[in-house]
């Protein structure tokens, strides 16, 4: 049983059988769940917490029922808290890392997630699909009907489909006068899709409708694994790629998109957020020569990791196979193919990166409420 008590002039402590956590009064005050503090329907705050007195303290703590406490703050506000809920909130890691932790992988990955698709999965089944996606950054669904626009149905099961200048869905097949190298039969190095778009598409789905060629193998690389290797082998090169802004551009008759970002995006504490890598499209600005020398050398190192067979997996997508991947973490590509062998036709679409995470959290909540495990 956890107990709450005031342990200092401005500090509440929660004692969980010997371990004590200090709780800042403002942290607690902005988590009050009473009807004066939040709108009870949406759970959103009714007051701006920055208006609270920075010197806010605690006046009293009283246990109103086992495990439930009434806390009075020095501004006169009173609210009830369950010790269990405070602990759950306090144990959330910083950032949005409440989802399954990522598992870095390379070419030795053996458990490639190939999952039979079902248009009407149970909650538990759908939750079981989300685990490999969130851990590895991709899944391959098999048995998706090889029909036009099915990719949109699958995409909608995990988030909102993002329309772009290529349409809600796009056809990946070799066409004359292609406005993107994806629409040729050429080999494509591992790349991030649309790094010139803001925001960059979070998740890409590619559904194979026809593949009559022996080439056109799909390739995937875990960009986070390559970036972590670079960080451990050459921290200075990693730093250069995390700091140097690079311009990505797409231009055709109707569209001109430009976005500038570093090749490696990190958060405030150095955690990887995204890789932006597309050797077809990156243009570093004219920086002082010494900086450019460091940048080109660092990019070469990352590039050789990303193109190394040590990091890449390759596989053939057959008709009915659909690959869904995190475009912020993984890089994808394909081997070339010979159009004289027959047709190769994929359909793709994008959804936002937070869609699958939201699906996972809602399923987790539903399964916990029904007493099942995901
Ligand atoms: O043809 C493929 O397998 C991949 C195409 C591609 O890289 C893309 O659409 O971005």
**Which class best fits the helix and strand makeup?**
alpha+beta
Principal-axis shape equals globular
The CATH superfamily name of the largest domain is Clavaminate synthase-like
Distance between the termini: 27 Å
The set of bound ligands, ions and cofactors reads: 2-oxoglutaric acid
How are the strands of the largest sheet arranged? 7-8-19-11-21-9
* Main sheet attributes: strand count, strand direction, barrel closure: 6 strands, mixed
Short structural description:
By secondary structure, this protein is of the alpha+beta class.
Distinctive features:
Double-stranded beta-helix; 374 residues; four-stranded antiparallel beta sheet; NE0471 N-terminal domain-like; 29% strand
Please describe what this structure looks like.
24% of the residues lie in helices and 29% in strands. It has 374 residues and is α+β, with helices and mostly antiparallel strands. The chain has two domains: 89 residues, NE0471 N-terminal domain-like; 248 residues, Double-stranded beta-helix (4-Layer Sandwich). The model has no long low-confidence stretch (mean pLDDT 92). The site of 2-oxoglutaric acid (AKG) has 10 residues, from strand 20 and strand 21.
Please specify the SSE layout and strand pairing.
Layout: E1 2-8, E2 11-16, E3 19-23, H1 25-29, E4 58-65, E5 68-73, E6 78-82, H2 83-90, E7 114-116, H3 123-136, E8 138-142, H4 150-156, E9 170-172, E10 188-191, E11 203-211, E12 218-222, H5 223-233, H6 235-243, E13 246-251, E14 256-261, E15 264-266, E16 272-275, E17 282-283, H7 289-306, E18 312-315, E19 322-326, E20 330-334, E21 344-351, H8 354-369
Parallel strand pairs: 7-8
Antiparallel strand pairs: 1-2, 2-3, 4-5, 5-6, 8-19, 9-21, 10-20, 11-19, 11-21, 12-18, 12-20, 13-14, 13-17, 15-16
Helix pairs in contact: 3-8, 5-6, 5-7, 6-7
The protein binds 2-oxoglutaric acid.
């Amino acid at each position: 049983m956890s107990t709450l008590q005031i342990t200092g002039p401005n500090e509440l402590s929660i004692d969980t059988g010997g371990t004590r956590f200090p709780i800042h009064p403002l942290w607690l005050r902005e988590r009050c769940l009473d009807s004066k503090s939040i709108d009870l329907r949406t759970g959103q705050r009714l007051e701006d917490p920055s208006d609270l007195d920075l010197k806010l303290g605690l006046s009293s703590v009283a246990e109103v029922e086992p495990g439930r406490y009434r806390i009075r703050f020095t501004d006169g506000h009173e609210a009830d808290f369950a010790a269990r809920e405070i602990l759950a909130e306090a144990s959330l890691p910083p950032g949005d890392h409440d989802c399954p932790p990522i598992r870095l992988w390379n070419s030795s990955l053996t458990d490639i997630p190939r999952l039979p698709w079902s248009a009407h999965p149970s909650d538990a089944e759908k939750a079981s699909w989300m685990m490999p996606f969130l851990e590895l950054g991709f899944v391959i669904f098999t048995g998706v009907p090889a029909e036009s626009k099915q990719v949109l149905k699958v995409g909608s099961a995990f988030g909102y489909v993002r329309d772009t200048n290529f349409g809600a869905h796009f056809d990946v097949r070799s066409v004359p006068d292609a406005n993107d190298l994806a629409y040729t039969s050429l080999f494509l190095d591992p790349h991030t899709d649309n790094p010139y778009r803001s925001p960059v598409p979070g998740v890409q789905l590619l559904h194979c409708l026809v593949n009559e060629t022996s080439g056109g193998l799909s390739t995937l690389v875990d960009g986070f694994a390559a970036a972590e290797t670079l960080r451990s082998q050459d921290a200075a090169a990693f730093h250069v790629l995390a700091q140097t802004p690079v311009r990505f551009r797409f231009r055709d008759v109707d569209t001109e998109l430009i976005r500038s970002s570093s090749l490696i995006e990190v958060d405030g504490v150095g955690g990887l957020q995204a890789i932006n890598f597309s050797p077809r499209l990156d243009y570093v600005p004219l920086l002082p020569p010494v900086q450019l020398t460091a940048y080109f050398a660092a990019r070469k190192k990352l590039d050789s990791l990303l193109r190394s067979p040590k990091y890449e997996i390759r596989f053939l997508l057959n008709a009915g196979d659909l690959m869904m991947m995190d475009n912020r973490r993984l890089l994808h590509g394909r081997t070339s193919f010979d159009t004289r062998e027959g047709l190769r036709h994929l359909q793709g679409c994008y959804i936002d990166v937070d869609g699958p995470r939201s699906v996972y959290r809602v399923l987790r909540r539903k399964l916990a409420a029904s007493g099942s495990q995901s």
